[in-house]
Amino acid sequence: xxxxxxxGSHETRVDLLKGDATELEVxxxxxxxxxxHGTGDTSGFGGLRRPVVMPGASTAPYGGWFDxxxxxxxxxxxxxxAIEKVVVHRGEITFFIRRELLLQAARHLRDDAGxxxxxxxxxxxxxxxxxxxxxxxAVYHLLSMTxxxxxxxEVTCPDTDPHVPSVVSVYPTADWHERETxxxxxxxxxxxxHLTRILMPDDWAGHPQRKDHPLGGVDVEFKGGFIPAPxxxxxxx
Length: 237
Hints:
Elements: E1 25-31, E2 36-37, E3 49-54, H1 66-74, E4 83-89, E5 92-97, H2 102-111, E6 119-127, E7 136-144, E8 149-157, E9 163-165, H3 174-185, E10 188-190, E11 220-222, E12 225-227, H4 230-233, E13 235-236
Parallel strand pairs: 5-8, 9-10
Antiparallel strand pairs: 1-3, 2-13, 4-5, 6-7, 7-8, 11-12
């Protein structure tokens, strides 16, 4: 992606400072070369243990226009406590938003003249089974064509209460994106006009991209040998 901007007064990527995380978050520890649990690790690296580390919260100042966006977002009506944390990582900024204030934050990001994040690129889901109480994440990508800026919003919720407000009323493009995220991850977008499956059959049980979804498959007999289905011979993190 080019560092050119529409307006010479805007900072380019090289002008942005590197954010320093105050702490790292370990959400899981994977074993072996491919995260295999139990039997079936034929890699020879079954003794490896690797933590899955998330970048921790960054501290202000974040650098460049990041600070302006953070300040204007927090200054929105009723949004003083909307931001749980800010993460600046690899030249990008992510705002973790409290899910009950997501819709209000999205509307402010779109309508505020100094923000104008009018383009919704999409929403995707992530499942971290080891992130207790925050197992499901919804990740939103927004673009300001007015200011040539990109940000990411992230909302978390537990497996036991997988509800997130729908942003279709603010960004109509989110309609099919939210349907796909629900279909694959089981995130329920409250207020969506028609939350139905979009990729899997209507009678499909479960959500295929969750880490706890069975691998599936069929038993295979090959030259007298018997190979069980993947979900019966090994599991992956």
